[in-house]
């Protein structure tokens, strides 16, 4: 064992609506092999824009996010690309998957896709929250309220996401708006939001789910990973959230140090989550 790196359970490719065409699945596989990453999960964005019957977003009368360039995942073609990479790179464990945005508001839509796609990894995440009747992107919220209020509202909505959807196994980037924390605000500290973080972690642990350490976001502290343990969390997933092949496995050595400092170790085998 020794220096084995964890799987990268959060990678985007050309099948994601927000990734450049250069984000090739093949090159991502080659980067994983070069970096000594034993497995990758291709978790391309599964976002919805048109409410279906049974989606909470219509019941609550919330206007969806209006990004014109947002498009749904072409699941069939995506799965064919995964299959092709599995044949091309037999030394790499390749998992299929998706990152579902705001799954609690799109429950029926998400369940319909996940029920037939047979994904190996499903990530849940929140990029936008309901505000004044509209699903509002995190960066836009900073223009509407104080930075502290953005984080508090966001983390409160993450609890609703976790409690309101069981379609996903891993919670991705739990404090996403931290990436856009305003330069003119007080420096970000996790302790300022400890209560809100702990509520998220308790909800996640109650469902026996998994916390992601995201290496695209500012890295969480070992203290926060200890809060996860104290909340009953038993497993951690690592995710680069790469939207470019060269970022697969980025900052994983540092992330491993943080997670180990909180008492987690490599799991049953090198493809597993890290566990207490
Ligand atoms: Zn995301
Ligand atoms: Zn992502």
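^ Assign residues to that structure.
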């Amino acid at each position: 064992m020794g220096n084995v790196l964890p799987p990268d359970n959060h990678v985007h490719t050309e099948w994601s609506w927000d990734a450049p065409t250069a984000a090739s699945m093949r090159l991502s596989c080659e980067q994983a092999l070069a970096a000594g990453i034993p497995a990758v999960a291709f978790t391309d964005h599964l976002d919805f824009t048109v409410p279906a019957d049974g989606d909470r977003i219509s019941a609550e009368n919330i206007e969806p996010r209006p990004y014109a360039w947002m498009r749904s995942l072409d699941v069939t073609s995506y799965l064919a690309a995964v299959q092709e990479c599995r044949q091309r790179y037999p030394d790499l464990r390749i998992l299929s998957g998706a990152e579902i945005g705001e799954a609690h508001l799109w429950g029926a839509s998400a369940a319909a896709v996940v029920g037939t796609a047979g994904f190996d990894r499903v990530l849940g995440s929140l990029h936008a929250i309901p505000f004044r009747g509209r699903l509002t992107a995190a960066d836009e919220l900073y223009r509407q309220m104080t930075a502290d209020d953005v984080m508090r509202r966001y983390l409160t909505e993450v609890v609703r996401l976790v409690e309101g959807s069981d379609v996903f196994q891993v919670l991705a980037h739990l404090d996403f708006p931290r990436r856009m924390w305003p330069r003119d605000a007080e420096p970000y500290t996790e302790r300022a939001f400890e209560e809100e973080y702990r509520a998220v972690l308790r909800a996640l642990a109650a469902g026996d789910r998994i916390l992601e350490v995201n290496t695209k976001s500012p890295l969480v502290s070992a203290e926060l990973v200890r809060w996860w343990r104290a909340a009953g969390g038993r497993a951690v997933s690592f995710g680069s959230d790469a939207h470019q092949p060269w970022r697969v496995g980025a900052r994983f050595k540092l992330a491993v140090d943080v997670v180990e400092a909180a008492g987690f170790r490599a799991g049953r085998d090198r493809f597993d989550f890290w566990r207490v």
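The pocket of zinc ion (ligand 1) is lined by residues 99, 125, 127, 172-173 (CB under 6 Å).
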